[in-house]
UniProtKB/TrEMBL annotation:
This is Glycosyltransferases. It is found in: Golgi apparatus membrane. Belongs to the glycosyltransferase 43 family. It is a single-pass type II membrane protein. Gene3D superfamilies: Spore Coat Polysaccharide Biosynthesis Protein SpsA, Chain A. One of its GO terms (cellular component) is Golgi membrane. It comes from the Eukaryota. GO terms for molecular function: galactosylgalactosylxylosylprotein 3-beta-glucuronosyltransferase activity. One of its GO terms (biological process) is cell wall organization. CDD domains: GlcAT-I. The gene is LOC107805073. Involved in the synthesis of glucuronoxylan hemicellulose in secondary cell walls. It is an enzyme of class 2 (transferase).
Amino acid sequence: MASIRRTLSPVPRPGSTMNGEACLVASPLSKSSSCTHSYTPTETRPFQAYYLNRLAYGLKLVPSPLLWIVVEMNSQSVETADILRRTGVMYRHLVCSKNITDVKEKNVHLRNVALSHIETHHLDGIVYFADEYNIYSADLFEQMRQISRFGTWIVARLAENNRNVILQGPICNASQVIGWHTEGRAKRFQRFYAEISGFAFNSTILWDPKRWHRPTLEPIRQSDTAIAGSQVSTFIEQVVEDESQMECLPMHCSRITVWQFNTDTLYPYPHEWLVKNYSSTITSIGLQF
């Protein structure tokens, strides 16, 4: 069972931009002030403190109430727990206990822990997955509170050459989705071309299927057996039937509210950071003086 830690502190008024990764859920939509539940998969690694603190500072700009759901693999690390306690953001620190040898896409299973938690505890609001490497416009989270069923928007991705910008997500006519940007995906067919950080949905879809006339009572989860690159589309297909059940944010998708940067690396540390012989390192440092 996932273990939980909580803390609560006042949240400042919103500002201009925020950075980070999260999954958000807003409180009952009938209320004027929605609670936001933010989900983040994380692991102990270099720069983890930087990314989590950057996200926390951003989440502080979102009007309360807000809940930050942070999920780790196997156990709650001391490093992550310490960071969360210091953020001043209300949070729940969960653990995915799945055998790591059975895991193909780790973040898929971490997200599923958060989805299961939301479903089990009937958290009411808007669910949002926000990658920690992204940059977000703070008013995006305000607009999410107006989502009835499923909202989607454009994510701008900086190409690997760091010169071109690729748009990913819906093509909109007012609030209606009429198509999808498919740059870089023309050779891979899928039903919906949204990014994981490019949509949010009403959490009651997870735990109140009769309200939304869902044809199946099966839990809504992400799958690590889906074709590579199509996990997001496969997930969305469980939430909505087609574009008629979606709405665009902002109107006409007139602004970019999420920027995605390529920061992936094959190595946990920068090149040549691994030190095998501490004595030789000390000697080399001494020779510099």
